[in-house]
Amino acid sequence: MQINITGHHVEITDALKNYVTEKMQKLTRHFDHVTIAHTILSIDKQGQKAEATVHASGKDLFADNITDNMYSSIDGLIDKLDRQIIKHKEKIGSHNKKSGGIKNMIVETEV
């Protein structure tokens, strides 16, 4: 997975970069088809904000989180993305199982 990290009014230190990278790797635990994650860390009047856009098998997922601490913002962001990825995976699985293909078709014959 390719991870892009951008800072807006905040310097991206090695510790922040490693923390975001480590947490983003947890997203692939539930769904292997996550290809790109773009994370923006910023500081504004409301607090410290972490937001991310994740591209997962044809769908872009977005989440953000604002708290007083950047590390807790990142944790909340990962939790939100994790729930979205699980929901997306279940939705894909339900579409694949719905039709079932030829194997599940019942052919009635008249005698």
The percent range for strand residues is: 25-35%
Mean of residue pLDDT values: 85
* N-C termini distance: 57 Å
Q: Write down the Rg.
A: 19 Å
Main β-sheet, spatial strand arrangement: 1-2-3-4
**CATH fold name, please?**
Double Stranded RNA Binding Domain
Series of H and E elements = EHEEEH
**Helix count, DSSP H or I runs of 4 or more residues:** 2
Q: CATH superfamily, please? A: Ribosome hibernation promotion factor-like
When the domains are counted, the total is: 1
User: Portion of residues in helices?
Assistant: 25-40%
C-alpha geometry: elongated
Number of strands: 4
Q: How does the major sheet shape up?
A: 4 strands, mixed
How is the secondary structure organized here?
Blueprint: E1 2-8, H1 14-25, E2 34-43, E3 48-56, E4 59-67, H2 70-99
Parallel strand pairs: 1-2
Antiparallel strand pairs: 2-3, 3-4
Label this structure with key terms:
alpha+beta, Double Stranded RNA Binding Domain, four-stranded mixed beta sheet, 4 strands
Task: Describe this structure in a few short sentences.
The protein has 111 residues and is α+β, with helices and mostly antiparallel strands. It has helices spanning 14-25, 70-99, and strands at 2-8, 34-43, 48-56, 59-67. The chain has one domain: Ribosome hibernation promotion factor-like (Double Stranded RNA Binding Domain, 2-Layer Sandwich).
